[in-house]
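Folding Task

Wanted — backbone structure
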Amino acid sequence: MGIISTILNFFGSSGKSKNDHGKLTPEMEEILASSVEAFKNRPIYKELTEQIIDSTSDENLLQVIFDNLSEKQPTDYEKEYETVMSWNKSRKSIYMIWVLEAEVNNGGYNQFYLNPDGQFYKHLPEALKLVGASKFANLTEKANKTFESEYEKITKHQDGTLEGFSKSYDENPLNDFDTEFYELYKTENLQQIQVDFIRKNKKEFID
């Protein structure tokens, strides 16, 4: 996801980014600060043109598309679902896949289903298939079926408190899907798949 993925990679490469005391090296701190600053100052386009898409690097294209779609959201986020569902299939798919990745990479499928983004869960397998991410589509379809069949067990501790949310991970049948999700990145490059899809269908994203 562009600059975000770059930042996350710093923390993943602990051997090179940290010193003997477990702290970031000065070099990594400088790179991290530079990346954060670049992210804060990135251009956000309310209207996308073919030229913008063509001139944007693969690394930053998903961020540019998501920012553009976010600009189309109403200030009342209770209308988010209605708004997203009014878009064409290509826009819907990229937006929904982004929020799925953000949630699962942060707190697993359990967090995805619990948070407002979970409202899109039934549409995710189709969205993933549309862009060509068949393995992620199959995995998410299995996770969806488990969520529906094990709903009471999964949500019994989710009482709106942080403690309840933390406890809901204990013996949660969704946990195994999280591990599979992270492992799938090794065999199915979800970011590049989406980038290729956008470039092949760029007219679907032009305002």
User: Anything to note?
Assistant: Residues 1-42 form one domain. The chain has a mean pLDDT of 88. The two ends are 22 Å apart (CA to CA).
